[in-house]
Amino acid sequence: MPGKMAVIFGVSNILWMVLAASQAFKIEITPESQIVAQINASVSLTCRATGCEAPSFSWRTQIDSPLNGKVRREGSTSVLTMDPVSFGNEHSYLCTATCGARKEEKAVKVLIYSFPRDPEIQLSGPLEVGKPVRATCLVRDVYPFERLEIDLLKGDRLLKNQEFLESAETKSLETKGLEVTFTPTNADIGEALVCQAQLHINEIDANLRKRTMTKTLQVHISPRNTVVSVSPSTRLQEGGSVTMTCSSEGLPAPQITWSKTSDNGQPQLLSGNGTLTLIAMRVEDSGIYVCEGVNPVGRDRKEVELIVQEKPFTVEISPGPQVAAGIGDSVVLTCGATGCAVPSFSWRTQIDSPLHGQVRREGATSTLTLSPVSFEHERSYLCTVTCGRRKQEKTIKVDLYSFPRDPEIEVIGGPVDGEPATVRCSVPDVYPLDRLEIRLLKGERLVESKNFLEAEEKDSLKTGSVEMTFIPTVDDTGKVLVCQAKLQIDEMEFEPKQRQSTRTLHVQIAPRNMTVLVSPSSTLEEGQSVNMTCSGDGLPAPKIQWSRQLRDGSLQFLSENATLTLTSTRRGDSGIYVCEGRNQAGTGRKEVELIIQGRERDYVSPGFLMLYCASSLLIPAIGTIVYFARRANMKGSYSLVDAQKSKV
Asked: Could you tell me which of 127, 299, 131 has the C-alpha nearest to residue 220?
C-alpha cells in the first residue's frame, strides 16, 4: 500500500510540473490588438515572453510582406520599430515566441493616417467691399481622405461643409479642399474666416482628429470720395501762397500723392503727403494739380486747377455780393476801385437786360441807383472796372421781397354760439409767396398752418391766406386768435421777417328763451287795459319789437318797447301779437293771443241814451285830442283803432 501511494504521488507531481510549465510560458504584445500611427512618425511594437528562460522571437506580416521595420532583442522582449511609418507598415503584425517545443503567437494591427498640419486658407485676391472673392480651404497630405470632413465658416455662420466619402484607388497622401465665393460687405471688416478639418478616426486622440485655421478678414475699400480743399483760393496773385489739402476714404487708408500735369501730359510727382503748400507763386505755376488716393485695391483722383494772375488792382462792390431790397424802396449799389489812377466803369445785368436805374460817377466810385425797386430789378448786376489793359468785374445780386404789413384776421359768420364760423388770416402784398408760412392759433393751440411752397411766382404781389372753420361756444369768449406770418428767407438780410396780429373772440348768442308776461290776462272784456311785457336772453342783449299778425300772415309793426300797453280795448283788438328779440346773432320770437270779449246789456237805459247823444258832440273833440296825442308820440300807450284809422 505504501508503494502504491508513492507511485501515485510521483505521477501527480510530474503532471503538476508539466501543467505548471505549460501555463507559465506566454507572450504579451503591446499595444494589444491595434495601433493607429501617423505617417512619418515612429512606432514600436513590443512582444514580451514570460515563463521561458531563453525564448526565441520572430516577426512577420499576416500577408508575408516586408516588415519595413527594425527588430531588436532585449532579453525576453522583442521590439519591432517602424521609423518612419509609411504606407508599407499598414498591416497586421504577428509576433511568434518559441520556448523549446512550445510556441506562442500574438497579432497587432497597424493602421496609418496622415493629418500633419492645420488647414490653409487661400483667397483669390484682396478683399474689397462689393466685389466677389473666392475663398479656398486646403488640407494637405491627408490619409485616408474618405474619413475627412471640412467646414468653412465666416464668423459663426457656416458657409460650406464637405465630406470626402469616396474611396481612394491607391494609397497616397492627398490634398483636399473646398471653395466658397462670397461678396464682402462693411460688416465683414475684422470678421474671422474659419476652416475646420476633422479626420473621423476614433482610435486617435481627440485633439489630433481636429485642426482649425482662422484668418481675420482684411476687407478693403477702394479709394473713394476724394476731396480737395484749397486755401485761400484757386485763383492767386503772383507772389502769393496756396495750401491744398487732399483726403480720400478707403480701407486701408489710401496713400495720398500730389502731382502736376506737365505740358507733355505726363504727371510730375510733387509730394507724398496729403497737404501740398506752394509759396511765392508765379504765373507759370498755373495748371492742373492732381491728388490721388491709392490703396491695394484701387485708386481715386481729384483734379484742381490753379490760376496765378498778375497782381491786379482791387474792386469792391457794396452793400455786398447780395442785397435784399423791398419792393417800392430805393437801393444804391456802389462799385469802387483802388490801385488804379484812372479807372473806367460800366454796369450791366447778367442777362444784358436794361438797367432800369441811374448811374453816376464820383471819382474812383460808380453808383447805380434803383428807385423805386420793382420786379424788373430782381437780377444780378455786374460792375466792370478797366484799368489800362487790366479788367476786373464784380457781381451783386438784388433779391426782392415784400412783407409790408401785419396779417389781417377776419371772422366770417359771427361768431355765434353753436353755429359754424370761419376764421381767415390773410397776408397781403407778399413776395416771394413760396417762402411764406402762416400759423393760426386759438389761444396757445395751433389750429391751422400753411406753407406756400408750391405757389406759382409770376413777378407779382400775392396775398397768402389760411382758413379755419370751427363751432364757437360761449367758453371761447375772451380767447385770442393769433395769426403769425413768417417770410422764411434766411439768406436775405431784412427786418421784420415775422409779423403777427391778434383778435379777441366775442361769441354772440342768438336771442332765446323769449317770454311774454300779460297783465292782467290775455282774455279781457271790452274797455279794459292790458300790459304785455316781452323779454329774452342773448348776447348782445336783444332789442324788442312788437308786431300784430294780420290775416294774410304778415306782421304789422307796433312798437320797439319791451312793454306793449293797450288801453280801453275793444273786440277789434283781439288777435295774435308777436314779440321778436333781435341782435347780430339772430332773432327770437314769442307769440301771444289776446281775446277781447264784449259786455252783455239786457235793456237800454235812459242814461245810456243821454250818453249816446252826448257822444255825437264829443267825438270831434276826442279826435282832436287823439291827433295831438299822436303828435306827442306818447311812449308805452297804444290804440289799435287809431293806428288802423291812420292807415286808411
From this structure: 127
